[in-house]
Write a structure and sequence with these properties.
The protein is α/β, with parallel strands linked by helices. It folds into two domains: about 5-115 and about 230-320, FAD/NAD(P)-binding domain; about 115-225, FAD/NAD(P)-binding domain, CATH 3.50.50.60. It contains eight helices and 19 strands. Strands 1, 2, 3, 4, 5, 6 and 19 form a seven-stranded mixed β-sheet that branches. The protein has a five-stranded parallel β-sheet with strand order 8-15-9-10-11. Strands 12-13-14 form a three-stranded antiparallel β-sheet, with no helix packed on it. α1 packs parallel to α2 (about 55-70) and α1 (about 15-25) runs parallel beside α8. It is elongated, with a radius of gyration of 23 Å. Pfam families: Pyr_redox_2.
Length: about 325
């Protein structure tokens, strides 16, 4: 922690660990700061991860940390709360007062999910309350699924999950009424729409069994689907003054995301971002790929400095020799 490293990676999920491995393999000094609270911590397994299908988030993180360390990188537990300085000499401040100096920064801290304020929903999140058909859809195939609508885009969610089950119901909740064309599309595929606000999710023996409406009616189900809003880790982002944009799907705010170029460079020189902080749609494997891509950009950025420094030293030596 006392020496300057080439790269400080804030976040020890798929994106951060992949960035750490890639940079370490290029013989860059790397320090990964891991808060130990991955977005998918409550999920039983990560899916669509080639050769690691269904692996638990805990095991995936453990394997990733071991790979970083195998190539000479260092992983420390902690939460970054602020980044000071600028390109070539950043200081990352942790919540316990420790500091890390680094030439470059990679932000890969993921996002926190905002859920509708419905009793019981948060407790089931990542288990039988879901949001992504590609992440967990196969696991609820042929089951009774209720879409808890929060906007007009909930009809799109319903159509996505209809591919996985013939038993899909939309609880319209706070969403506006669907237009005639949307209703006809839903009806054509056998998706039922039930009016009324959702009061709570019903759980029996640690298993979701239904969604209760304010009227008292219970819609039986095995899984519930809800749109979330993923928000970037604010303290570090604000300390750096990074540009952040809203990502919308129709009338739904999907996420806030750090603005980056194709190599993951942000609007602040020397700071890069990878994973869900920069791409709201990134799955686990896509986040890992983004981490590799960003590490390439970081390495190129550092190499430009290395060349400039070596060239200046070479010219000074050559001048002295003359």
């Amino acid at each position: 922690m006392d020496e300057m490293v080439d790269v400080a990676v804030i976040g020890g999920g798929a994106a951060g660990l992949a960035a750490g491995v890639t940079a370490s393999r290029s013989r860059r000094s790397v320090l990964v700061i891991d808060a130990g609270s991955p977005r998918n911590a409550t999920a039983a397994g990560a899916h669509n991860v080639l050769t690691r299908e269904g692996i638990s988030p805990t095991e995936l993180g453990s394997l990733g940390r071991a790979e970083v360390e195998h190539y000479g990188g260092v992983v420390v537990s902690g939460t970054a709360v602020r980044v000071d300085g600028g390109i070539g000499d950043f200081t990352v401040v942790l919540d316990d007062g420790r500091t890390v100096r680094a030439r470059r920064i990679v932000i890969a801290a993921g996002v926190a999910d905002d859920l509708p304020d419905i009793p019981g929903l948060r407790e089931r999140w990542g288990r039988d309350v879901l949001h992504c058909p590609f992440c967990h859809g196969w696991e609820v195939r042929d089951q009774a699924i209720v879409i808890i609508a929060t906007g007009s885009t909930s009809a799109h969610q319903a159509q996505m999950f209809r591919q996985l089950s013939e038993n899909v119901t939309i609880a319209r909740n706070t969403a506006p009424e669907f237009d005639a064309e949307t209703l006809e599309q839903l009806t054509a595929r056998g998706i039922r729409v039930v009016d009324g606000a959702v009061a709570e999710v019903v759980v029996v023996d640690d298993r979701l069994v239904g969604v209760r409406l304010a009227s008292g009616e219970v819609i039986d189900c095995d899984a519930a689907v809800v749109a979330t809003t993923g928000r970037v880790f604010g303290a570090v982002v604000e300390s750096l003054g990074l540009a952040v944009s809203e990502v919308r799907f129709g009338d739904h705010l999907m996420a806030t995301a750090i603005d980056t170029d194709p190599m993951g460079a942000t609007t602040v020189p020397g700071v890069f971002a990878a994973g869900n902080v920069a791409d709201a749609r990134a799955t686990v494997i896509a986040s890992a790929a983004a981490g590799v891509n960003v590490a390439m950009g970081v390495h190129a950025s550092l190499m430009a400095d290395d060349i400039a420094g070596a060239l200046a030293a070479h010219r000074e030596r050559s001048g002295a020799a003359v």
